[in-house]
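Could you join me in thinking about how sequence relates to backbone shape in a protein? We need material for that, and I hope you will provide a protein of your own picking. Once you have written the record down, we can walk along the chain together:

…
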Amino acid sequence: MKANNSLISSISLRSISGCVTVINVFGFGLVLGLAALQLSYGCFLLRSQRASSAAESAAIQAARDLTRVFINDEKWGYVSLTENSADAIDLRADDGSSLPVSGINSVLAAVRTEKLLAQELKSENFGAEADLDYLQAKHLCNKLSLAFSKALSKRRSEEFYDLKGRKIRIYEDSLDLFMKNIPDLANGNARIVDFKIQQGWLADGASTTTPLAERAADSQECYKGFCNYPVGTDEFYFAGISTKARRVDPRRFRMPDSKHFSSAILVDAELEYGSFDRRGKFKGEYRIHVTAAALPCAKPKEGISGTLALHFPQGYVPELSRLKSLLSVSAFQSTSADLFCSKNGDFPIDKGSSLSLNDALQNRKLAGSVARAICDWIQSSRATPRLAQLVEAMETPFPSISNCYANTLLLFDFDRDGKASCRLVNEPSFEKHLVSDKQEYSIAYRVLSSTRGVQGLAIRNQVNCRAAGLGGKHAGRPLAWEYSEGGLCVAIEVFLEAEGASI
């Protein structure tokens, strides 16, 4: 009996020992499996983080490159996402002078200021010119957005070059940067399944560098990008722009629509990880999909603005007591002006130059020509006008003078902060000036019967067309003038019929 018990005990011990061994082996395998799983998951997380970081770098690169794209519009001249002063670039008019590049938000801000000013002045003629500019600004937005779309395309239908003449390769440069930040692509452990760059806008808005027209006197409040700032029934959506290219939450990204200006960038990429077999065929194990969004950067508007000059060579005319009067006097609203355009150079100093009648605009009223000149002066400003000060400058009576018959010159300017002001020059040496090549000249005789005699009105608009080529030899740039550091944009003269115009 004792022998049997010993045998049973021996067998039991051996069975238990075998079970423990099996359990140990199984446990060790489980530990190894868990360790391998943890290692694989850690590798997946690392690769996901690298892919996300690479996508963000690529999006920021694309956003930076987007600001290098510019167009030459037939009205507004060179336009891009960001401002570029004439001194910083090498775009030149036919006369050799440097030309600036306007930011799209600056154009929209100027047109919105026109629309607001038309409401304040209650001027039908000014409102009509502002409406025209609004339609042309909308066309400009579509034109620039289309250029962005083409420049971002993987298969471009045309080539784009920046202000220094370098070819713009947004897709290729962003893809190269993305690939450099994915080490597994170089060692054959990954391949790119898809890589896309898209333009769009951001929900909840974004920043801009463009000051609000209605900002307070001591405020630098700016428009909010991708948000509507309506004037009446007209909508104004500004491009979202930052002071430097930066990443944003891709969940806020929205595809382009017919309203928002699409300045945001989205990079959408998919990677497949695995290895190549002996036959050189890639065997994928899993895929990682990443998205990243970014906003481009823009410089604020800067520089010295040009001047609008109002000349009374025989002294003030009582019926015209303020700048607004040129829009509201009934005679100016009912009388049509003769509209001309200088051809073949600056008239009359360039050989072969002449004034050609502009038949397409002969129905424009004289007040409409005044409104057109004021609108173009606002657009050419190198600062975003402050609405309150602009209205004040338009409505404030002219400065008093001791001799009401004296040769008088009034100069309207914007300072660097966008504040409009008026200054008086007594007895100026205002000689006959030229009409700038391919710019607008309007004149009307016997338009106002004043206590001072029958008056005429002449307007020389030097900044009506600011396009390189179409804008003539000066491309609509303000011309150098002794009374204005920023040059002369517009000259308006109220002259006695018997004496004739001097501009």
In short: The chain has nine helices and 17 strands.
